[in-house]
């Protein structure tokens, strides 16, 4: 699948939207079987990176491979071995959870009979079996997120891109997704590329963290290495030190004058 | 402290004029000034010049005077419909539940919403009328040589009618939204209603026009006198008569009286009473009879039962991943009220078409008759295919597109499933009109079969074109976007143009002296000229539509740059 155990490799990757530079000279290496956490402030380029790596967006310049496949010439092959959980849910409101997962399975070339046992198991794990035949329009945002998580894992991808996987989940569901990621990574050697704002989620789940600011990778290492390098108490404080998240209390209340 | 309704008025006005955003005040002022100039000077000048160049106004004046009251009612009916349906359909298509949450969190009452959204619409719809009405009225104002005071009063009456109709439309919209719009399901039903609303209102109107004489004799008076659009029309007619510059005689005025029946005072009072009643009912019922609030009225949870016979049969006939994709696409398509409305449109067209066609087939030459039937059926099938499938139910959002694209060859599989769905839906929508046409025109069996195949091919061609174009230029669920309007227009116009290929070929043959007609007949004329015509019309449409599908699929599947 990949060479030298490397799952993702990018070289001088750039992406611009008109005058806006979303990604700037990104050189990234993610090892097979690892759980890579991609942290950064809003608009830093996390989602753009995921979309390029999953074959949905073309880069402006630079090269890269995903699971040993070229991101410029082998996009369809990349899609076959990866799963993507998008940042915002794009579910079909008039399908039930089972029907939506059947739809996603069929898009990936799976017939219904081969899918149904897998769908039932995934919905049971995510605690949705009692609502699995209800239309998705009546689901809460957390439930929709769970359905999306199931759709991402349905075809057993080798590499899973998760864009803000826990942003809409309650603590219990978030813990469940964490355990699911850890179990899949340990038992099936599935690799994970997790974009998130939640440093605690990244600290619990990821073995390697990369921090991106203004499209540039500014630091990479294990959570402990990043905390130590920043001389901080935990990953959140280290993250704030790196991205410059100092808060001025006076300025916060100035608007009331 | 600013009134809440005023904040809503401002927001509604800003939304409706968002396309003029960089210089909103300047553009709106310019439009208003130009509109007044257009109404008072330019439109009468243009209409007068047009009439004088074609027919002398003095020659047609007598005719215009006779037609005036009836035509004025028609003009008012048109404006009444425009002002009632346009805002209603527009509002129902876009119920923003998120906005409601903001309203409720700021303690805004239903009456504020009603007044605010109405007043916000007045400038834009007022401008529309300012530009639409003068060309319609100018010819009569010229014919009657109406004085400036008379013109002012006429436009004042028109303004009252427009404002009343807009208020009525806003009131009806608010009531429907209050009942439906606070959930995704309600929003879906509202979108479906937005599509059907024209049929619901225009259908009975046509029926009324058709059966007006019988109704009139039943009621003992002209039935149109009980409709609100008649009163402003008659007030305008009386104002034109009263302020005329022709010195109409007493006999002539008495003749108008016998046509209009109600005098100026009665029509005026009826109009003012109607306007006052609309305003009063709206203000009194808001917060009493209907109230905007978040609730569980339409937030019902729909649980899916087992699959029906049709879906099970499709699964058996098309096993594997494609069958699953087709079945789930069908479920998604048929559960949306908006799509059902479109199919209803198609079905109504399919039912009306054969009756219209039966009036065409009156020429003695049988072959020409069949060719004419094929031509008109083809045009009807294009409308059915494009209205039903141009852009709707294709993709709900960009996020949905990402999901489809993230599957290998996902876009291609998706488009194929959508096309298969369209071909299935078109089967009954083709069979019904062709069967009725065959029965009404007593067509031979073999010709009926030929017409069925041809009509189905044309319908599928139109659906393919519409699907391909929507894939090429997706607009998601936004039916008010320029993309949707463009897709719908191009999907309806291009296939009709392609169907005209036989005529173009005949013209080309005439110009180049190549016997193209004879070549085509020798190639396709198995059943005479009609089959030549039908096949020559269908082939270019199917080829271009096939290319459009390929292009659209390729575009939809490629990464964004």
Task: Describe this entry's structure for a reader.
The complex is a heterodimer of chains A (257) and B (561). By secondary structure, chain A is of the alpha/beta class. Chain A contains ten helices and ten strands. Chain A has helices spanning 46-53, 75-81, 97-107, 112-125, 141-153, 171-188, 199-205, 223-230, 235-243, 249-252, and strands spanning 6-17, 20-31, 35-39, 61-66, 69-70, 82-85, 159-163, 191-196, 208-213, 216-221. By secondary structure, chain B is mostly helical. Chain B has helices at 4-16, 24-54, 57-93, 97-105, 110-144, 148-180, 184-219, 230-242, 250-260, 264-285, 309-317, 321-334, 337-360, 366-389, 398-405, 410-440, 445-472, 482-499, 501-512, 516-524, 529-557.
Keywords summarizing the entry:
heterodimer, A: 257 residues, alpha/beta, 10 helices, B: 561 residues, mainly alpha, 21 helices, 0% strand, globular
| Rg value of chain B | 28 Å
Class by helix and strand content of chain A? alpha/beta
Helix content of chain B: over 70%
Summed up, the helix count of chain B is 21
- Coarse morphology of chain A: globular
- What is the SS-derived class of chain B? mainly alpha
**How far from one another are the termini of chain A?**
61 Å
Rounded to the nearest angstrom, the distance between the terminal CA atoms of chain B is: 49 Å
> Residue ranges of chain B: pLDDT <50 for 5 or more in a row?
none
Q: How are the secondary structure elements laid out?
A:
The complex is a heterodimer of chains A (about 260) and B (about 550).
Chain A: E1 6-17, E2 20-31, E3 35-39, H1 46-53, E4 61-66, E5 69-70, H2 75-81, E6 82-85, H3 97-107, H4 112-125, H5 141-153, E7 159-163, H6 171-188, E8 191-196, H7 199-205, E9 208-213, E10 216-221, H8 223-230, H9 235-243, H10 249-252
Parallel strand pairs in A: 3-8, 3-9, 6-7, 7-8
Antiparallel strand pairs in A: 1-2, 1-4, 4-5, 9-10
Helix pairs in contact in A: 3-4, 8-9
Chain B: H1 4-16, H2 24-54, H3 57-93, H4 97-105, H5 110-144, H6 148-180, H7 184-219, H8 230-242, H9 250-260, H10 264-285, H11 309-317, H12 321-334, H13 337-360, H14 366-389, H15 398-405, H16 410-440, H17 445-472, H18 482-499, H19 501-512, H20 516-524, H21 529-557
Helix pairs in contact in B: 1-5, 2-5, 3-5, 3-6, 3-7, 3-8, 5-6, 6-7, 6-8, 6-10, 7-13, 8-10, 11-12, 12-16, 13-14, 13-16, 14-16, 14-17, 14-18, 14-21, 16-17, 16-21, 17-18, 17-21, 20-21
């Amino acid at each position: 699948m990949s060479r030298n155990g490397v799952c993702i490799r990018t070289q001088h990757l750039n992406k611009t939207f008109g005058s806006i530079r979303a990604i700037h000279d990104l050189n990234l290496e993610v090892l097979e079987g690892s759980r890579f956490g991609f942290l950064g402030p809003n608009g830093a380029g996390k989602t753009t990176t995921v979309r390029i790596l999953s074959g949905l967006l073309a880069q402006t310049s630079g090269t890269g491979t995903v699971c040993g496949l070229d991101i410029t010439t082998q996009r369809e092959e990349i899609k076959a071995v990866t799963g993507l959980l998008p940042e915002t849910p794009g579910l079909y409101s008039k399908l039930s959870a089972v029907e939506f997962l059947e739809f996603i399975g069929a898009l990936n070339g799976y017939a219904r009979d081969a899918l149904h046992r897998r769908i039932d198991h995934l919905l049971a794990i995510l605690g949705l079996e009692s609502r699995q035949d209800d239309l998705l329009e009546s689901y809460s945002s957390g439930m929709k997120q769970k359905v999306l998580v199931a759709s991402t894992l349905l075809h057993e991808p080798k590499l899973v891109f998760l864009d803000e996987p826990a942003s809409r989940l309650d603590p219990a569901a978030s813990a469940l997704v964490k355990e699911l990621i850890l179990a899949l990574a340990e038992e099936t050697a599935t690799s994970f590329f997790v974009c998130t704002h939640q440093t605690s989620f990244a600290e619990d789940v990821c073995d390697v963290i990369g921090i991106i600011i203004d499209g540039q990778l500014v630091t990479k290492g294990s959570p402990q290495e990043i905390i130590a390098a920043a001389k901080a108490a935990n990953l959140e404080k280290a993250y704030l030190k790196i991205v410059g998240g100092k808060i001025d209390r006076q300025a916060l209340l100035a608007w009331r004058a | 402290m600013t009134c809440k309704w005023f904040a809503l008025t401002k927001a509604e006005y800003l939304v409706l004029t968002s396309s003029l955003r960089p210089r909103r005040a300047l553009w709106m002022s310019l439009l208003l000034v130009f509109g007044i100039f257009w109404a008072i000077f330019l439109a009468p000048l243009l209409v007068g010049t047009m009439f004088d160049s074609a027919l002398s106004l003095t020659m047609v004046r007598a005719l215009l005077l006779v037609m005036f009251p009836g035509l004025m009612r028609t003009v008012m009916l048109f404006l009444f419909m425009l002002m009632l349906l346009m805002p209603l359909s527009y509002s129902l298509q876009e119920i923003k539940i998120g906005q409601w949450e903001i309203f409720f969190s700021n303690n805004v009452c239903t009456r504020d919403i009603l007044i605010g959204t109405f007043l916000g619409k007045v400038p834009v719809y007022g401008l529309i009328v300012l530009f639409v009405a003068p060309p319609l009225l100018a010819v009569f104002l010229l014919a009657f040589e109406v004085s400036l005071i008379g013109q002012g009063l006429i436009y004042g009456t028109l303004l009252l009618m427009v404002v009343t109709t807009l208020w009525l439309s806003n009131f009806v919209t608010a009531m429907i939204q209050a009942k439906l719009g606070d959930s995704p399901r309600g929003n879906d039903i509202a979108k479906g209603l937005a599509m059907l609303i024209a049929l619901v209102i225009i259908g009975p109107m046509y029926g009324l026009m058709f059966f007006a004489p019988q109704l009139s004799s039943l009621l003992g008076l002209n039935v149109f006198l009980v409709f609100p659009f008649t009163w402003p029309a008659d007030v305008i007619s009386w104002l034109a008569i009263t302020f005329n510059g022709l010195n109409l005689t007493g006999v002539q005025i008495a003749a108008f009286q016998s046509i209009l029946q109600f005098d100026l005072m009665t029509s005026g009072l009826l109009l003012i009473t109607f306007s006052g009643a609309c305003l009063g009912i709206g203000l009194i019922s808001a917060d009493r009879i209907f109230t905007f609030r978040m609730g569980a009225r339409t937030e019902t949870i729909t649980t899916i039962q087992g699959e029906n016979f049709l879906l099970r049969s499709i699964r058996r006939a098309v096993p594997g991943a494609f069958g699953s994709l087709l079945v789930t696409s069908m479920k998604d398509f048929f559960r949306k009220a908006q799509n059902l409305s479109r199919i209803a449109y198609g079905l109504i067209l399919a039912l009306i078409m054969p009756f219209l066609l039966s009036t065409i087939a009156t020429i003695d030459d049988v072959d020409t008759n069949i060719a004419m039937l094929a031509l008109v059926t083809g045009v009807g099938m294009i409308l059915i295919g494009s209205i039903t499938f141009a852009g709707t139910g294709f993709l709900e959002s960009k996020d949905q597109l990402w999901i489809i694209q993230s599957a290998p060859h996902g876009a291609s599989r998706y488009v194929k499933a959508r096309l298969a769905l369209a071909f299935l839906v078109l089967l009954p929508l083709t069979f019904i009109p062709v069967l009725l046409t065959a029965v009404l025109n007593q067509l031979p069996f073999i010709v009926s079969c030929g017409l069925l195949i041809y009509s189905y091919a044309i319908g599928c061609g139109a659906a393919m074109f519409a699907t391909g174009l929507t894939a090429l230029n997706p607009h998601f669920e936004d039916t008010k976007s320029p993309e949707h309007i463009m897709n719908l227009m191009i999907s309806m116009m291009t296939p009709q143009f392609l169907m005209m290929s036989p005529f173009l070929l005949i013209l080309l043959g005439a110009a180049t002296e190549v016997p193209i007609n004879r070549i085509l007949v020798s190639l396709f004329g198995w059943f005479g000229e009609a089959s030549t015509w039908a096949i020559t019309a269908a082939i270019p449409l199917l080829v271009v539509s096939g290319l459009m599908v390929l292009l659209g699929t390729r575009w939809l599947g490629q990464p964004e740059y």
